[in-house]
Amino acid sequence: MSSLLEGASEDQLLAKFTCAQEHDIGSMIRNIPPAQPSRMRRESFRSSLGLLDILPAELLLLTLNLVDFQTLSRLSGVSLKGKAVVETLATYVDVIRHAPTILTALGRTRLLYHHPAVLLRRALRSGKCVSCFCFGAFLFLPTCERVCFECLHENHSLRMTTINVAKQCFQLTERQLKRIPIIIKQVKQLAIEVHGTLENLPEPERPRACSAEKEVKKFWLFKRFREAPLEPPGCDMSQLPGKSNLVEDDFGGVATIRFPYLTDVGAD
Ligand SMILES: [Zn+2]
Question: What is the CA(67)–ligand 1 centre distance, in A?
Fold first, then answer.
């Protein structure tokens, strides 16, 4: 064995002794190309940012951290100075260097302009899952929050669903649902706002022994959606008593993408 490893590089050793098989849920976003930084290298001392030129540099950088990546991208296309300013932002540097596929995913799902750039950088630099507070290796795109594999599976408040299911499960209208993305947590919050409490809703019809499999699945799905926690449980939900009745729907892992964790030492 030692002769096999002799002269092997650190990367070869790691590849030999680690399992590269990825665990993920069927509908996760995979295999998308990374966003490419501009290759243009020209500079000009006379270039301008128009009205933004009156801001002191510190204030300009502070302001740009609060806007979204779509705005930053447009600003970098305005002038050579705009490009130079955007490319010196720590937020831009971190994300384009370590998580460029996230920008592609947010762009393709038309979510790029929903999240301030600083929020994406914060998620990149915090390893905590928003639900159980342990390490999370994925980004949930609609809320720009870090999540872990277990919580994506167990915490139904992190599920996306269809307008029809949301309407039926929480007795909401299409018009009411237009105000929010169809994430169970937000649909449930909206339902409480509309109905006062979920106890005012009729119970989902309990399936009988002769009910079709589709009906049984629908009952348990509605039940789990209504029970989904609005606050982070702060623990591994698979360990909670009485929560073993997982319901698989077609949307587990939707709008989620693998996400590196960036520390001062480097990206994990
Ligand atoms: Zn978690």
Answer: 28
- 150 CA to middle of ligand 1, Å? 6
Q: What is the pLDDT of residues 61-77, one digit of tens each?
A: 889 989 999 999 999 88
Q: Which two tokens stand for residue 85?
A: 């300013």
- Using the mean position of ligand 1's atoms as its centre, give its distance from the Cα of residue 146 in Å: 8
State the distance from the centre of ligand 1 to the C-alpha of 52, rounded, in angstroms: 41
In this structure, are strands 256-258 and 145-147 parallel, antiparallel, or unpaired?
unpaired
Q: What is the Å distance from ligand 1's center to 220 Cα?
A: 22
Cα–ligand 1 centroid distance for 239 (angstroms): 12
Burial 38-58 (b: 16+ CB within 10 A, else e): eeeeeeeeebebeebeeeeee
Q: How far apart are CA 137 and CA 199, in angstroms?
A: 35
pLDDT score at 120: 94
Each residue's pLDDT tens digit, 94-135: 999 999 999 999 999 888 888 999 999 999 999 999 999 999
pTM over cut 0.85 = no
